[in-house]
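User: Please run a holo structure prediction.
Assistant: Happy to. Please share the sequence and the ligand.
User: Here you go; the ligand is acetyl coenzyme *A.
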Amino acid sequence: MSAPGPLTVDGPAVDRSEQVLTQEALEFVADLQRRFGARRDELLQARRTRREALSREPVLDFLPETAEVRAGDWTVAPPPPALTDRRVEITGPTDRKMAINALNSGARVWLADLEDANTPHWANVVGGQVNLYDAVRGTIAFTSSQGKKYALRDASATPVIVPRPRGWHFDEAHVTLDGNPVVAALFDFGLYFFHNAAELVSQGRGPYFYLPKMESHLEARLWDDVFTHAERTLGIEHGTIRATVLIETITAAFEMDEILYELRDHAAGLNAGRWDYLFSIIKNFRDAGPDFTLPDRNAVTMAAPMMKAYSELLVKTCHRRGAMAIGGMAAFIPSRRDAEANERAFAKVREDKTREARAGFDGSWVAHPDLVPICAEIFGETLGDADNQLSRQRDDVEVTAADLLAVSQTPGARTLEGLRENVTIGIQYVHAWLSGNGAAGINNLMEDAATAEISRSQVWQWMTNGVVLESGETVTRELVERVVEEQFAALGATVGSDVVEADPLWDRARELFVTTAVAQDFPDFLTLPAYEEVLRLERA
Ligand SMILES: CC(=O)SCCNC(=O)CCNC(=O)[C@H](O)C(C)(C)COP(=O)(O)OP(=O)(O)OC[C@H]1O[C@@H](n2cnc3c(N)ncnc32)[C@H](O)[C@@H]1OP(=O)(O)O
Ligand SMILES: O=CC(=O)O
Ligand SMILES: [Mg+2]
């Protein structure tokens, strides 16, 4: 381990933080930061360079310099026993109650989310690690403020825990090394790995991760180097760590083989992260003119030609390489209070999971415990006695660069209603995020950082490209500002105007939404200025 520097932790008090923020664990994180922090910075610069090239010429293609990797006959390491059956995976934040509910849900895997579904308030970041520590050991329990008691039903049969650290772009402001914030991904990964790797191995499981928002195979190479170093440092056998990579950026879709190749000793699969994928398409082609403006957010389904091409290429690539293909999130959430909304959500999720199972995915995500049985049933019908569909090759699938970029073939209209929904969802989500909830049910849809990014970036794109709506109106800054005023007033009617007035975060949410949706310089991530706001509020 390299000599630990003056790693400073400076955040509000969090219950039991001393249990995870130990001297040894922080030294482990400091070592990761020292070794890999600068490479992360270079990779972020490479992202900016690639995006500048795209703004000059909006074309992407499979990389000529890695043609040999794509043509080569190689496979990733076989899945470990704990990850051979992933027919249903529940996702959710790592707060204590939801962690227990997820672990009792009957899913095969719990994606313990420190990312899209989590606001990185220090309490969530550190509290999440405390909860994961207890979850790994089967000791997690909780009593709600109403006195309801939560505990594991059967600690020996809980889903496999697969945390998702934050993406490479994020820093953890509360932890600094030599005065600079540490890379949040290294912090999230490092703490979890340090405390839990050996314990998980002793249980016949392992330190498994989902890796979000990568934009290139070089970013995967960095993760692979981090994994190898972390295993060596703690004396954990090489290849014990297993990662499932979200293919959720348009550039990564052109590098699926390469990403698996870089991680081949550590790879478990790829996941079709459809929401960030849409965001990435809008973001990268935001100034590329009408061919790249998508219709209303709700009109873009997985049946759109470019989405079908992306998800089928993912299955084909995975199975050729012996890796699991995991489906994405249908955003419809059930309601225990509204039978009609519940039925609608069940039907939509059924349709989505059926399409995925038929396409060859090995399993998929659900956002809510009530959806676990549906996903398990649908994949069960396809899988029969098998654990997965790894042996099913999709040699029939041929996907070209043009297929992945067929944005203009996406059916659907651009409507004033769509603009209104983007605005109202965006503001409500930012409010939830600032309040500490990274996932929220809004209009019976699951909203998280990825879906909110679509909303605000679509407003930016429509405005910047002067999209003419079905109503005949052109999207201008004035129109967006008018819609923001109207939707904000309407929110008062829904949420209660006294509630909105009493809570200053509503105004901050509106301002942040407007800033990120209409700013001339498009912020790369909505969550970056939102995090600045969280830090400001913390200091106030
Ligand atoms: C694009 C992507 O990255 S998708 C992946 C990231 N996003 C997510 O993980 C979102 C996951 N889902 C959620 O967070 C939640 O389902 C929400 C916020 C959308 C809705 O949650 P709620 O409003 O609490 O829903 P609801 O009231 O129906 O919940 C009923 C019960 O199920 C629990 N529950 C709901 N969703 C989950 C979940 N994903 N994991 C664990 N428990 C859950 C609730 O905690 C509640 O428990 P309780 O009865 O003990 O109080
Ligand atoms: O993380 C998943 C996504 O769809 O985004
Ligand atoms: Mg995502």
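The first helix runs from residue 17 to 20.
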